[in-house]
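Duplicate of #3305? Posting structure anyway:
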């Protein structure tokens, strides 16, 4: 499926996507790599609705957030999603569940 066909899936809500046909992740990546930010608000909404962020999506979010010609609101949302993923997945191993070093309080 080409990029145009992928991003066109964003016209409908995430709940209506036929996931047996196409992965929501592929749609989101296509939108984040689109030359304009026209599809980004929908893709970011899908991410907030539960499309899984992985390392490739996090990198695409960071790349999108760094491009000044995209809307500030979309860039900020992309940055926040990438930062949240990084904070969860790149936490230091000596931090406890409550986020303090070695369980200190």
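Output from current build:
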């Amino acid at each position: 499926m080409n990029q145009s066909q992928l991003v066109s899936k964003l016209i409908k809500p995430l709940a209506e996507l036929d996931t047996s046909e196409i992965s929501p992740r592929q749609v989101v990546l296509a939108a984040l790599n689109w030359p304009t930010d026209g599809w980004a608000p929908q893709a970011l909404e899908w991410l907030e609705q539960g499309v899984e962020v992985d390392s490739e999506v996090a990198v695409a979010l960071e790349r999108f957030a760094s491009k000044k010609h995209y809307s500030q609101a979309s860039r900020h949302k992309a940055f926040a999603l990438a930062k949240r993923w990084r904070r969860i997945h790149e936490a230091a191993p000596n931090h406890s569940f409550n986020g303090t070093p070695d369980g200190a309080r």
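Confirmed duplicate; merging threads. Residues 63 and 86 are 14 Å apart (CA to CA). Residues 72-89 form the longest helix (18 residues).
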